[in-house]
Amino acid sequence: MTAVGPVAPVEGAAAGVGLRHGLRQLGSPRWRKRNLTFDRISFFAVFLVVPLAAYIAFVVSPFVQAAYFSLTSWTGFSADIPFVGLSNYTKLLDDDIFLKAVGNSVVLALVLPTVTLVLAMFFATLVTVGGSSRGNVRGLAGSSFYRIVSFFPYVVPAIVIGLIWSQIYDPNSGLLNGILTKVGLDQFQSFAWLGEVGTAKLAVMFVIVWGLVGFYLVLFIAAIKGIPAEVFEAARVDGAGRFRSTISITIPLVRDNIQTAYIYMGILALDAFVYMAALEPGGGPENSTLVISQRLFTTAFTQGQFGYACAMGVVLAVITLAYAGLVFLVIRLTGGRDEVAE
Amino acid sequence: MTSTQARPDAPVAGGSRAQAVPERASGRTAGDTAVTAGSHAVLIIWSLLVIVPLLWVIMSSFKTSSEIFASPFGLPERLRFDNYVNAWTTAGIGSFFLNSVIVVFGALVVTMLFGSMSAYVLARFQFPGNRFIYYLMLAGLTFPIFLAIVPLFFVLRGVGLLNTLPGLILVYAAFAFPFTVFFLYSFFRSLSKSIAEAAALDGAGEWRTFFSVMLPMARPGLATVAILNFVGLWNQFLLPVALNTNTDNYVLTQGMAAFASQAGYSVDFGALFAAVVITVVPVLVVYLVFQRQLQGSVSQGTNK
After folding, report:
1. Cβ separation of A148 and B291 shorter than 8 Å?
2. Virtual CA dihedral for A233, B29, A141, A262, nearest 10 degrees?
3. pLDDT at B17 over 50
4. B49 CB within 8 Å of a chain A CB
5. Phi, psi of A86 (to 5 degrees)
6. Domain residue spans in chain B?
7. How far apart are CA B155 and CA A69, in angstroms?
8. B84-302 in CATH: which number?
9. Alpha carbon of A284: minimum distance to chain B alpha carbons (Å)
10. Which of A174, A204, B207, B243 is 20 to 30 A from residue A181's alpha carbon, by CA?
């Protein structure tokens, strides 16, 4: 029966049932003591060593390797990997297309979280505490309808969201230009929203916001509902209106959630690969929507410059970490000012 | 009158806000009604922004290509399902769908099983390196997958799993692993220690304590993580596009992207719309049935 042990993770629950009968004799009552029974050794091996080894092989080691490959001019298919020091990085500094991509990604990382989270917080406030300012603190009537509908896009795969909107933006048969010309704006007859430098980035950003507001709306609703109603009622007695309550009570009390959301959203905005793959696979007009991830992918898998692509990956990782640090810092700096009932 | 002074900054309150509207016992004011109406208006506009595109896609999926080009509003001449047949068979959405199901559920089983086991060990046992492993998980969550993607390609090629479904399952599971451990770690910590001790006193070994005592107790946490992992893996795009380039093994997301870029040349937009509907509707139905649990999971999973 002891042989059941190591097989258990493969068999899953079935093996667990077998164990119920098999291991009765093996357990020691003094389980805190380090006694190396077979039960204990197999337990640690299967529960921690095996999964951790796989995790290190498939997740951690690629990250570490990327840092090393970024110092080489590896093309992937030759056996020798020429070490070139920091020259990939100096090359990046002169790479106008890459710098353009960095600029675009930074713009996305600054604009998208702010717009998405402000909208989500605004809707969440209306839905939870936006009801009548008399009587109990409550949300609007029909709030669950708004909540359910807003969340729709979250269950649609991002690539499909991109494909839907690329059809909506279609210059000739798209829904957007159809509506605009219908209401008399004939200059949009066959306006290419994704093909003009002036509108491409805005159009893409709108799609990303559209896809993600619902997710953060649900997040904020849960956070706001965690605030005791008495807090809002007390504020109301003290003369705070709905707007004032939001600024002085809701936002400070859900600050942790806002911080988490900002970091999630920023990481997503710095990636943005999937939306761009659907909407602007070529980087947009004059590369106006090209992002780092897209450039990295092309450099690696189309051009085969793996060392150079890894250097881009390192830059992206550094920007991501810097972004997260910045969010922590800003939240920390603005946090001390208005502590409410914490 | 205190109630009106209580809202000095109610956005739409005009001079009329002092008038009490006597329709309800709670005594609404006109300004209050205006704010409520404004709030509804804003939310209805947003709801329309979400719903109208989806309805338009459904309508377009029944049109022929020439009808699509004729007008974005025109109703289809008759209800025909040719586009759906084309999408499912010719474009291969059916087989992409099947591949997605295999890969996502395979990865889900692997990552949930090993993730819960590792989280349990990390949460309940003190040993040297415990903290270090925890931070290793955190690093895996923070760094962008894009940094790892190139070496990962060669790691998979090295073990002969590039362009195979088992390879993709393994990678999906590995990248969902840190989140699973992270979430369940706090969950197992919150479970009472005394229960595991009682199980040990009753003579249960480590294996048995986990599978028959701790795991069943962790069921709500497991459900939450499983739902979040499912949505995340089902929507995964970069990993398959980079690591699974054999057309037969395409998963749904990359199959859709490939189909859309083909449609750019052969212009079967009707089938593209149908493919979108096929992708979205089953998930949407599941969502509507389980929306309470799903939304609960989202807020639990991220409000840590």
Report:
1. yes
2. -60
3. no
4. yes
5. -90, 15
6. 2-60, 84-302
7. 13
8. 1.10.3720.10
9. 15
10. A204
pLDDT score of A219 more than 70: yes
Contact yes or no for A218 and B295 at CB 8 A: yes
Pick from A320, A310, A322: which is nearest to A269 by CA?
Answer: A320
**pLDDT at residue B168 in the model:** 95
For domain A91-338, the CATH class is mainly alpha
Domain coordinates in residue numbering, chain A = 4-69, 91-338
CA distance B163 to B167: 7
CB contacts under 8 A, A 293-332 vs B, are 293, 296-297, 300-301, 306, 309-310, 313-314, 316-317, 320-321, 324
Nearest CA in chain A to B273: A164
Q: Tell whether B59 is within 8 A of chain A (Cβ).
A: no
**Out of B46, B54, B73, closest to residue A150 by CB:** B46
Checking if the pLDDT of A236 tops 70, the result is yes
Q: What is the ipTM of this complex?
A: 0.81
A225 burial class (0-12, 13-18, 19+ CB within 10 angstroms)? Answer: middle
B:134-163 residues touching chain A, CB 8 A cutoff: 136-137, 139-140, 142-155
pLDDT band at A108; cut points 50, 70, 90: very high
DSSP letters along B207-243, please? HHIIIIIIHHHTHHHHHHHHHHHHHHHHT--HHHHHH
Contacts of A76 in chain B (CB under 8 A): 154
Q: Is A52 on the interface with B (CB under 8 A)?
A: yes
Cβ atoms B271, B90 nearer than 8 A: yes
Mutate to test the interface with A, among B43, B57, B93 (most CBs of A within 10 A): B43
